[in-house]
Amino acid sequence: MTERPPYRLPRDVVPEHYELVIEPDLPGATFVGAAGIDLRVLAATSDIVLNANELDINRAALVMADGRNVVPEVIYRPGEQQLCLRLPTPLLPGNCRLDLRFTGKLNELLRGFYRSKFKSPSGKEQWVASTQFESTDARRAFPCWDEPDFKATFGVTLVADDGLTALSNAREVSSELVGNGKRRTRFAKTIKMSTYLVAFIVGPFELTSPRVVDRVPMRIAYVPGRGALTALAERAAAHALSFLRNYFSMPYPADKLDHIAIPDFASGAMENVGLVTYRETALLVAEDSAQVERQRVVSTVAHETAHMWFGDLVTMRWWEGIWLNEAFATFMETLATDQFEPRWQIWDNFGVDRAAALATDGLRASRAIEHPVGRPEEADDMFDVITYDKGASVLRMIERYLGDETFRRGLNLYLDTHRFSNTDVTDLWDALESASGQPIRAAMSTWVDQPGHPLVSASLTGPFELTLSQRRFLLDGGAPDAEQTWAVPVSLRYGTAEGGVEHDQLLLQDVSTTVPLKAVPTWLVVNEEAWGVYRTYYSEDLRGRLLSSHTGLSNRERLSLVSDMWATTVAGLVSLPSSLEVWWTLRDDRDPDVWWAISSGLGLLDLISHEEDRQRLHSFVVALAGGLFDDLGWGPAIHPQGARGQGQRLGGNGASGESPQQARLRARLVTLLGTLGSDDAVRTEARKRLALADAGEAPLPPDLATAVAQVVASAGGDEEWSVLYCHYKDAATPQDEVRYLQSLGGFSNGALLSRSIELTFSGEVRNQDAPYLLMSILGKREGSVLAWEAIEAHWEEMQRRWPANSIHRMLEALPGLAGTSHAAADRALAWLDAHPLPRGELKLRQARERLKVNLAFRERIAPLLRAALEDALNQRER
Ligand code: BES
Ligand code: ZN
């Protein structure tokens, strides 16, 4: 056995039950607490070691089985966030109880036990106190064995001002006044669970009346003024619970389920058992808001509800297994959302997340999905696109490979075997192998235990022979450090001269192989439906055949074609004109996600182009997207009030009869033409529409609102800045608030961007939002240097004020510095060398690598860009 590192707890004493009494003082920003912890001593020891962080321990006593009290010496080890309770004589195996009294501060860093301020509809400022414990911040609220496999039950009691709502993981069992204007609320004993899933919340929350699904009462909680925004969350919560209960063939494990929106929240949402917390935009939404905004609520609710089984009932043993939690929740979220609203075609949209995962996984600084985690602070760095999106894509790949029923049976077996307990990834392979009868462990290890993904090259080496080969794909175009192979599920589909379609499946495990074909293919797809987590590089011949038959490709296949072509262009394997040709061929494509992929390629070209070539690039964008947009038009969602004699609830939600895809496509094209395309007509129209909306003459169609705000900002001046700022300040919904705040990052004018940067540090913007405004400015050509200067100037302040996870997230936009001079990029890299961040080391290495990839791309492509664009435009005229 390897030696236990000092930051891990010894296992000779384990907790079985915690009785917690917590009394927060909201205005005073402090709390007092008492914990009675039932312990089982497994091996004789005179030290009891548990976690605590920034707590003052006022009293500690051990109550022995015979009633004797022993007072230990309390030794605090701040470096390890541990308390050591040293006893005069060793404890012998058996049971005892630890009684602790402590006090702590309600912080404003959105972690541990923290407080958050909001303005009630009457304009009064009020506080709420809430918890966020994952990964290792339960120890900031009460002393505990804060590692996921010390599962125990919890009995929580909250003491707070009478009139405030108090909530925790389990049902309320009693509530009584205790004098001093205080009320004591006790909650039932929880299931056996990990500390990171405990939650307690106090504040002037309102609640929907319970809706009982499968005997589980569910409610939505929100601060006053938000009551009109709960209907979708209620429906989504009910649907998710019954969908997942059926899928897992297992009832929901706890006794109630509340979903609560907290005014300040560090991430999107958190799966505390029975009391899921959300940022407001992820739970509260108007029924007539944009489809993407409603989809976010439905999928977040589904994601967190899935965690009730996957994560809460069955939990990873240690943080390197966090992908089991998050990848599964992401996978299940997509299954559930697809059933909730099939019209959203969410599995197509999943292709965008998969593409984002591959974009990071193509860096040398990527990591394996299952990655060692040592110190607790490293756990927080695991919540990234590799864990969530590559993880979920790999799960979808296995599910498709094994078949959905077999896969589901494997999961049921896994959950059933390990409920109320902890697992390693090998337990999942056991269950899937036993359900499928197939040895999948070695194949899965190639996806989970090594970084990167393959580029599968395909070429015809005979009329009836296809040759496939694999190697690691790297965006910098260089050779991999070591030879790697994967067990690649290849799923071929090809057309024959007679108009037939053939299919073939194989597992490519060697570096290369040949596949006999039944006919000479007129076209051929290697990764049918794009479920395989790899990129494909078609020989020029195959690429040509594919392009001439692109109408036979599914949405996800076209998305992956564009995305693979672009990635191989960035890597220098495919020429720029070839990628331009693909875009050109797909210019009438009606899938919004295909346009997402095209737009992101265009965005990089805009970032790295020489100033004097930008005009040409704008014309290219207009030539590319203008035709489709003319066809689509600003309607049907845009009509001045009464013009069609019907209501205004239009756009994407079905009221207009338009598909959600079409509404999203329109927004995508408006954004593309009005920003990267600098299209005057679109810009003028966007300004006009915003003005009409402000004048109360015609509301903005919800699905277009973000696009309009972005376009208005893009060409906007002083006046537009003020208009958008006022929209931000007066926002009636959480979605409007972030929409208009984010739009302030969309200006092209340096002085106005500086004004937006000032705003991020003014204290006026919520700390949960400020980093993302700065991020959008750092990521764009006109803003990156300004943003970077501000980052240097406010470095200390950012660390002090913003949530710990948000600094390295914001720095993901660092590659935006490729739009300026080498000198600016070098300066930033040197600063980062001299100022290491306490967290996010890997993310930062990835951002730095991508910046270098972008700079190299600029060096290679910028000089060729004008000619390539001119050729493409000329060909069109011919
Ligand atoms: N468990 C996470 C929240 C979390 C993330 C806690 C990082 C601590 C550190 C939660 O289940 C989650 O994944 N939330 C997502 C939203 C989800 C819909 C993808 C988030 O916060 O972005
Ligand atoms: Zn999650």
Note down, in words, how this protein is organized.
The protein is α+β, with helices and mostly antiparallel strands. Helix content is 40%, strand content 22%. An 8-stranded mixed beta sheet has the order 5-4-8-2-1-11-14-13, with no helix packed on it. Strands 16, 17, 18, 19, 20 and 21 form a 6-stranded mixed beta sheet that branches. The protein has a 4-stranded mixed beta sheet with strand order 28-25-24-30. Helix 2 (291-307) crosses helix 3 (322-340) and helix 20 (750-761) runs antiparallel to helix 21 (770-778). The longest helix is centred in the last third of the chain and has 37 residues, at 841-877. The radius of gyration is 28 Å and the shape is globular. It starts with 12 loop residues before the first strand and ends with a helix. Bound molecules: ligand BES and zinc ion.
Distance between the termini: 73 Å
Which sequence of strands runs across the widest sheet?
5-4-8-2-1-11-14-13
Shape: globular
The second-level CATH architecture of the largest domain is: Sandwich
Q: Would you tell me which CATH topology of the largest domain applies?
A: Immunoglobulin-like
User: What Rg is obtained from the alpha carbons, in whole angstroms?
Assistant: 28 Å
Main sheet, how many strands, which sense, barrel?
Answer: 8 strands, mixed
Q: How many DSSP-defined strands?
A: 30
Give the percentage of residues in beta strands. 15-25%
| CATH C-level label of the largest domain | Mainly Beta
Poorly predicted runs: 637-655
Please, how many domains?
A: 5
Structural class: alpha+beta
